[in-house]
Design brief:
Blueprint (H helix, E strand, L loop, with lengths): L3 H21 L3 H26 L3 H31 L13
Subcellular location: Membrane
Family: Belongs to the complex I subunit 4L family.
Membrane topology: Multi-pass membrane protein
Length: 100
C-alpha cells in the first residue's frame, strides 16, 4: 500500500502548479487550465483519503467535483469565445473594457 503522504505531495505539487499558472498568466485559456489542475489536485486528495479510510465517500465527492469541472469548462469556454469575438484575443486584461 502506498502511504498517503505520497498522494499529498503529488496533490500539493499539482495544486501549486495551478496556482502559479493562475497568478502569472494573462491568457483566459491558461486560466481555465490552471483551475482544472487545482480541481484535479483536490480530487487526488479525495480519492486518496477515501482509499486510506476504506469508504467511498471521497470517491463520491470526487465525482461531484468532476461534474463541477465539466460545468466550469462549459461556462469558461463560452466566456472565452465572447472575449475572442469582441477583442480578437483571449487576453483577460482586455476584458476590463467590457464593464458598464
Amino acid at each position: 500500500m502506498v502511504p498517503p503522504q505520497y498522494y499529498l505531495v503529488l496533490s500539493a505539487a499539482i495544486f501549486c502548479i495551478g496556482i502559479f499558472g493562475l497568478l502569472t498568466r494573462r491568457n483566459a485559456l491558461l486560466f481555465l487550465m490552471s483551475v482544472e489542475l487545482m480541481l484535479n489536485a483536490a480530487n487526488i486528495n479525495l480519492v486518496a483519503f477515501s482509499y486510506y479510510w476504506g469508504n467511498v465517500t471521497g470517491q463520491t465527492f470526487g465525482l461531484f467535483v468532476l461534474a463541477l469541472a465539466a460545468a466550469e469548462v462549459a461556462v469558461g469556454i463560452g466566456i472565452i469565445l465572447t472575449l475572442y469575438r469582441n477583442f480578437d484575443d483571449v487576453d483577460v486584461m482586455n476584458a476590463t473594457t467590457m464593464r458598464w
